[in-house]
Amino acid sequence: MLDALLLALWAGIAGIDLFNGLTHIHRPLVSGLVVGLILGDVQTGLITGGMLELVWMGMAPLAGAQPPNVVVGGIIGASFAILANQEPSVAVGIAVPFAVAAQAGITLLFTAFSPVMHKADEYAEKANLKGIDKINYLGLAILFVSYFIVVFLPIYFGADTAESVVNMLPQTFIDGLSTAGGMMPAIGFALLLKIMFKTQYVAFLIIGFVLVAYLELPILAVALIGAAIAMYDFYNGKNKGNTPPPSEEVYTDGI
Known about the structure:
Blueprint: H1 2-21, H2 28-39, H3 42-55, H4 70-83, H5 88-113, H6 116-125, H7 129-158, H8 162-168, H9 171-196, H10 202-213, H11 219-239
Helix pairs in contact: 1-2, 1-7, 2-3, 2-4, 3-4, 3-5, 3-9, 4-5, 4-7, 5-9, 6-7
Keywords: Cell membrane, Membrane, Phosphotransferase system, Sugar transport, Transmembrane, Transmembrane helix, Transport
Membrane topology: Multi-pass membrane protein
Protein name: PTS sugar transporter subunit IIC
């Protein structure tokens, strides 16, 4: 009960951060650590959170476009891995459907809340700042409660039975989830490259692949090499005066 309440509380905080705080404490990597601390298995929480971070690294909500919900997926996935004593790759296969379901739920919630914006416009025309504040606080409260309930229910009612249900599943199904979960980080990176891919950076992509696949360097070593290259490129361009001048922002209708 206490664990479910703490996890639900964290889900509410992370859910608000996803849309309003933007400190990125809602990311699966952070949630994995928090879930691990609450449930007493930091290592499994961190590994599961890290795998889910690779899956959803390039996904962030932009305006009305909602990707799979990283808050619900991250917390449910890490919790499942610890409570059901399963491999993190299996938990990834469980987390993705929860994240997709939460994606639909958030879209429905935002749609249901949209008429309130007309009231906010009315308050704005009357310069009623307190009314606008109340609407914003109401939105935050609804968001917090929604995340709290969505995470509390499966953790509370499923914590004791999760392991027994998993034990009832055929081993081939578990192996399938593990295989699918292992593929998810590659799919996440493919989606990220689809957005960020630039021809001039292909050389660095190939170098990274060689370092990992053929020289078998750990991820931390490759990340440090990438950081060193990025720092060299940044300061080299800065010293040459290649940094473009900041463009003047244009405001229209207060935006």
